[in-house]
Structure formats: structure tokens, C-alpha cells
Specification:
Elements (H helix, E strand, L loop, with lengths): L1 H26 L1 E5 L3 E6 L3 E4 L14 E5 L5 E6 L16 E3 L3 E4 L3 E10 L5 E9 L2 E9 L2 H17 L1 E2 L3
Antiparallel strand pairs: 1-2, 2-11, 3-4, 4-5, 5-10, 6-8, 7-8, 8-9, 9-10
Length: about 170
């Protein structure tokens, strides 16, 4: 009888620890509401709207935003307009060079990946554009070193997965 109770107690303790970890993770994020999207970002990051919405008609409504880590080594990026558009806030500048683009075409969506690097090697920007029917969005990360990218990779993946887009 005692042998069967011990594994049950361990199972209950593990479930409680998992619930506590999940609750802690949720408490460590904030929600940013753009004109046509919401996204979860780490609570200790600084959020800033970037491109004002071209279609919302509201003041302080944005189609894109950036989220910068406390140490400044990483910035997450989202562009999610009402339907489609041009993320002009991430255009290539004269002190940068673009790497090769990779395009993956599926039945319903086309995904394009590309990286931009500073010519002096001081940072890298990586993006993923998803186009599906009439809608699109771009998610990206700007990082100073591979070590910085690795440090925030898990949070970046959670950020990407949290994007919710709206339409009319």
C-alpha cells in the first residue's frame, strides 16, 4: 500500500511544480496591442510602437513594434498590418548587407526568411515574413552577438508563437 502511495505523491508534487512554473512564466510577460494584432513579450523588455497604422484611424495605433531587452543586446520585432503592407522600418540601410533569402511555398502560405548584417559586424537582424491569402506579417530579432541571440532565443520563440492577428 505504501509503495503505491509514494509514486502518487511524487506525481502530485510534479504537477504542482509544473503549474507553478507555468503561472510564473505567464506572469513574466506583458501584452502589446497594435492596431491589428497582439503579442506577448517579456515583462522586463521595453516596448515601443514603430510604424503608425496606415488603416486603423486611431491615434497611437501601430502596425509594427519593437521590444528591447534590458541589456540592449536583443530587440524583437513585429509588423502585422490589417491586411498587407510594406515594413519600411526594417529596410536595408547603406551600412548593412543582406544575406540570401530563403522562400518556402506551401498550399496556403509563403514564408520568406532573410538576414541583414551590419558591415562592421556589430549586429545581425533576422526576419521571417509570412504571407497567407491577403494577409501578411513579419517577425524578427536584432542581436549584437550569437551569445545574445542564444540567451534570448527561448523568449523569442515564445514571442513569435504569441502573435494574434485581427482583421476588420
Amino acid at each position: 500500500m505504501k509503495a503505491t502511495r509514494f509514486p502518487l505523491l511524487i506525481l502530485i508534487a510534479l504537477c504542482a511544480m509544473t503549474l507553478a512554473a507555468t503561472t510564473t512564466l505567464t506572469a513574466q510577460t506583458k501584452t502589446f496591442r497594435g492596431a491589428w494584432f497582439t503579442v506577448e513579450y517579456p515583462a522586463n523588455f521595453t516596448a515601443e510602437g514603430s510604424l503608425p497604422s496606415a488603416t486603423s484611424g486611431e491615434d497611437e495605433a501601430f502596425d509594427s513594434a519593437t521590444f528591447t531587452s534590458p541589456d540592449g543586446s536583443v530587440t524583437f520585432y513585429v509588423y502585422s498590418p490589417q491586411w498587407s503592407g510594406d515594413p519600411t522600418d526594417i529596410e536595408l540601410s547603406e551600412n548593412e548587407r543582406e544575406g540570401q533569402r530563403k522562400v518556402t511555398r506551401g498550399k496556403r502560405q509563403t514564408v520568406t526568411y532573410w538576414t541583414i548584417g551590419a558591415k562592421d559586424g556589430s549586429y545581425t537582424r533576422s526576419y521571417q515574413e509570412v504571407r497567407e491569402d491577403e494577409t501578411m506579417h513579419v517577425l524578427g530579432i536584432h542581436y549584437t552577438t550569437q551569445q545574445a541571440y542564444n540567451k534570448y532565443k527561448k523568449q523569442y520563440l515564445q514571442f513569435k508563437a504569441s502573435l494574434k492577428q485581427f482583421t476588420d
